[in-house]
Write a structure and sequence with these properties.
The complex is a heterodimer of chains A (268) and B (468). Chain A has 268 residues and is of the alpha/beta class. Chain A is built from eleven helices and ten strands. Chain A has one domain: P-loop containing nucleotide triphosphate hydrolases (Rossmann fold, 3-Layer(aba) Sandwich). In chain A, strand 1 and strand 2 form a beta hairpin. Chain A is globular. In chain A, 48% of the residues are buried. In chain B, helix 10 packs across helix 11. Chain B has a two-stranded antiparallel sheet with strand order 1-2. Chain B contains 16 helices and two strands. The chains are: A alpha/beta (268), B mainly alpha (468).
Chain lengths: 268, 468
């Protein structure tokens, strides 16, 4: 079947690229229902990998395996290995709380905490003890906001609540919050789906800049977005990884018929 | 002849007749509509049933209003008619005597004739009263019947193919719902006004200042009406209760909404609701028979310790601590279920955000969930406070009756609610300062709980984070 062949392809490619996250034979179950079927994939560092596929195909579920967010869902059970820098994140030795400081996440809907803009950014550094002094913290907050391209817009009102910002600003605040703890990987679960085109363009620009420092994985419904921001693309269908490869390759010359059908808009 | 009408049980009869008339009007209206729809090729605006409801509405409502007016004002009207007929200075009675005499007449009219036949004058007056009452009843029934028929005729004349019976019925329903809301408001207003007027009567005899700031309360002998000891007692007991209920209730809510798995939750939630369902009188005797003696025994033991001066604790057999503790337990489910709702309303995305930042569960609760839920939690606590202030049964049984200002939790202490019960139970005239002081206390109680509830509402409205 096509699935097994793509898995081998992915494994072979692992050697060729500078792998940051190596997922091996991931199965995810919600209760008795299986959501992810034996997915293996290597995600390279310092580049953007996009997950595309129709709704309910398991791309978000797979994304949440990488920082063990599925732990917070009562009925979810994950099998397989997710290896980041040579260590399986699912092993008992790994503290999910520390893991998540290395693997940041940005959600579909902007979810700033009910705190000031400053405290939203300072939250992560505070709980992980990253700042030694008040000045340190100020610097982290400023740097994070600058890197998220939000500094100029909010520098005068850091003491105002983060919930008062516009949707696009809130999402950039959430990205700033995620990069404030200097993660190695940033997961983005449809980060632009609640935003207008202008805010989306800003976020996409930001993602492109962040690529130089972080390994970014983005789930998106928009194929144009995947084509614009990512270097590698993985296509999921019905819980299976159909195809993964260079974005250009996937969009111009997909190997699998289902990928071809999806990107040309025949289903999904 | 009219006298016989005075014995007719009006309410039941009226109800039965109205129901029957309503059904008949419904059938008549529907039949008319069906005839119209069968005869012509025109589309009916409304279904025949709505024409039926419309006819029934117009038949029942006018008649019902007349009957309602009679039941509210009928006996008073009969009595004032009788008073007008009686000559001034009738049988040498003054106003109060006459009023009592008429009360007796009213009672006698309900009874068998043989009871009062021995007093000729009284019998004559009573018979005249029954005649008046019977006449009034008959007139009311006739008026109701006429109104009903007129309503039916009016309704039937309006029925035609283009008549919007649905809209009319909809309006009728709106008015009926409004009437229900109005009854609730009117009743509340009535209670508040009566509290207010009786309080004003009380304050004409006892100065407001003496009442609100006086340090001695001795209402039974009508000597001192200084309510500060009662306010103080209410405050101390509510404080003890909140010290129990707020932490326990809040932490229980946090456990239930953030930590407990679905199975545990399915057990604990109903258990807490059982706690909420225990009648307060049961809590009351639990406080009186179990907790109060235990507190008292503990106080005696503490008094016996060498470091504590003799008689340092009052060690009373009913005491503030027992009442406060048990009241606190009673309020736990109140706090926990309200807080649980509020905490659950905090969107999951905020928790996900905190978890994804690498926050532990308690960090998430402390720094993200609770700040978001805080306004609602504050409101829950304020509502619980007003509940504690108004709670009666537990304090009546376990707190005692002695009005005193003391910080000793093992001493006997009394509250506003306990004093109201004490003042109004037993025989007493209704216009002595003693009973009137109960109304004044009730008014203060009402004002206090109202303020707490209003603050709670404001807090919720003003500080609620808006999540979509």
């Amino acid at each position: 079947m096509a699935d097994t062949t793509t898995s081998t392809v992915a494994l072979e490619e692992t050697k060729a690229i500078d792998t940051k996250v190596d997922c091996r034979n991931i199965n995810v179950f919600y209760g008795a229902k299986q959501a992810i079927f034996d997915v293996s994939m290597a995600i390279p560092s310092r580049s953007v990998t996009a997950f595309i596929g129709p709704s309910g195909c398991g791309k978000s579920t797979f994304l949440r395996c990488i920082n063990r967010m599925n732990d917070t869902i009562e009925s979810a059970r994950v099998e397989g290995e997710v290896i980041i820098d040579g260590e399986d994140v699912n092993s008992a030795a790994v503290d999910p709380v520390l893991l998540r400081s290395r693997v940041g996440m940005v959600f579909q809907k902007p979810n700033p905490f009910p705190k000031t803009i400053y405290d939203n950014i300072a939250y992560g550094p505070r709980i992980h003890g990253l700042a030694r002094s008040r000045d340190d913290l100020d610097e982290i907050v400023q740097n994070s906001l600058m890197r998220a391209g939000l500094w100029e817009e909010v520098k005068e009102r850091l003491a105002e609540p983060g919930t008062g910002l516009s949707g696009g600003q809130q999402q950039r605040l959430c990205i700033a919050r995620a990069i404030a703890v200097s993660p190695e990987v940033i997961l983005m679960d449809e980060p632009c789906s609640a935003l207008d085109p202008i805010a989306t363009a800003k976020i996409e620009e930001l993602i492109d800049e962040l690529r130089e420092r972080f390994c970014i994985v983005i789930v998106t419904h928009s194929m144009q977005q995947a084509a614009r921001v990512s270097q590698r693309t993985a296509f999921f269908h019905l819980g299976k990884l159909v195809e993964v490869g260079d974005t250009e390759h996937i969009f111009t010359n997909p190997t699998d018929n289902r990928t071809q059908d999806y990107i040309t808009g025949r289903f999904g | 002849m009219l006298q016989t009408f005075s014995h007719i049980p009006m309410a039941w009869l009226a109800f039965a007749v109205l129901a029957a008339a309503g059904c008949a009007a419904f059938l008549a209206g529907r039949a008319t509509a069906m005839k119209i729809s069968a005869s012509g090729s025109v589309m009916m605006n409304s279904q025949p049933n709505y024409h039926g409801y419309f006819a029934a509405m117009w038949t029942v409502l006018p008649a019902a209003l007349i009957l309602l007016a009679y039941s509210l004002f009928g006996s008073g009207l009969a009595r004032s008619l009788l008073t007008q007929e009686l000559p001034d200075g009738f049988a040498g009675m003054d106003g109060v005597q006459l009023s009592q005499y008429l009360d007796r007449v009213g009672e006698a009219a309900q009874l068998d004739r043989a009871v009062w036949a021995s007093e000729p004058l009284f019998a004559a007056v009573t018979e005249r009263f029954m005649t008046l009452q019977g006449g009034l009843k008959l007139a009311t029934m006739l008026a109701a019947a006429v109104a009903g028929l007129a309503g039916l005729a009016f309704a039937c004349r309006r029925l035609n193919a283009s008549f919007r019976a649905r809209t009319e019925v909809e309006n009728g329903i709106e008015w009926a719902l409004f009437a229900c809301a109005a009854i609730a408001i009117a009743t509340t207003a009535g209670i508040v006004l009566s509290l207010l007027f009786e309080s004003i009567r009380f304050f004409t005899e006892i100065p407001v200042f003496d009442f609100l700031f006086g340090l001695h309360w001795n209402a039974q002998t009508e000597e001192d009406f200084g309510a500060i000891p009662l306010f103080f007692g209410t405050f101390i007991i509510s404080l003890i209760a909140m010290c129990v209920a707020v932490p326990v209730g809040l932490y229980a809510a946090i456990y239930l909404s953030e930590y407990a798995g679905p199975k545990v939750r399915a057990w604990i939630k109903p258990m807490l609701e059982i706690l909420a369902g225990i009648p307060t009188v049961v809590y009351g005797f639990f406080a009186l028979l179990v907790v109060a003696p235990a507190v008292s025994a503990a106080a005696v033991w503490l008094n016996g310790l060498p470091v504590i001066p003799d008689e340092f604790f009052a060690a009373s057999s009913t005491n503030a601590l027992a009442a406060g503790l048990v009241m606190g337990v009673m309020i736990i489910p109140f706090v926990s279920s309200l807080s649980d709702d509020v905490i659950n309303a905090v969107p999951q995305s905020l928790r996900d955000g905190a978890f994804a930042m690498g926050a532990t569960r308690s960090e998430t609760v402390k720094q993200v969930v609770m700040p978001a839920a805080l306004p609602g939690v504050i409101a829950a606590v304020l509502l619980a406070v007003s509940r504690a202030i108004g709670e009666t049964m537990i304090v009546v049984m376990a707190a005692g009756l002695r009005p005193q200002i003391t910080l000793d939790p093992t001493a006997e202490i009394t509250t506003i609610t306990v004093q109201i019960v004490a003042l109004l139970t037993g025989d007493s005239e209704f216009d002595s300062p003693k009973t009137l002081s109960a109304f004044a206390l009730g008014f203060v109680l009402f004002a206090l709980t109202l303020v707490f509830n209003l603050i709670a509402l404001r807090v919720v409205q003003k500080y609620r984070e808006k999540y979509d």
